[in-house]
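Reading a protein record of the kind used here takes little practice once its layout is understood. Each number in the token line that follows is a code from a learned vocabulary of backbone shapes. One such record is shown here in full, so that the layout can be seen directly:
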Amino acid sequence: MENISIEEWMKSIIDMLDKHFGKNVEWVFHDLTVDYEKTIVDIRNGEITGRKIGDSGDNLGLEVIRGTNRDGNQFGYYNYTDDGRILKSSTVFLRNREGTPVCCLAINEDVTEMFRFEKYLEERTRYAGEPATVVRDVNKLLDGLIDDAQREIGKSFKAMNKDDKRDFIQYLDNRGAFLITRSVPKVCELLNIAKGTFYNYLDMIRNSQ
């Protein structure tokens, strides 16, 4: 069989995947041997993240190239765009015989409407009373509550305005999240607010109830 380059082979794969999955999935091929500010050499449905050929990768690629992330391959994790859309993402890195990362393929699927539909179904099937969540690790419980709150708001932390942050805190307070040790510093860090601001929000929320 005649030898073909990685770029040619990857282009054929992306052509197939793009036609199979359609416009809600972004496919990005990065050449990691060039300047990191312009690693994208092929991209489909780039309007999902607003990127194009010649643009840069994300912090995960930097960590892999730097060597602080030894594997780098990640599957089914969530990202958030600046305008609040939710992306389900996966990234796989290809290395040469010396183990140096030379390229990667990333997938970003816009699942915002899926989450909205999930929320709609949840509201339609909701019954009186909230089921308890049994966990061994209270930190995982807090992480779960934070994920629930972010889905409720439907925005990334960076995209949240003051009202969104107040609603985010109110959701967590109603679920009892702030009874968990270290919950307040974690939420302050995620929302990029000072503790004083957090407690001002909390006082307003509780005084209005």
Summary: The chain is about 45% helix and 20% strand. Residues 129-207 form one domain.
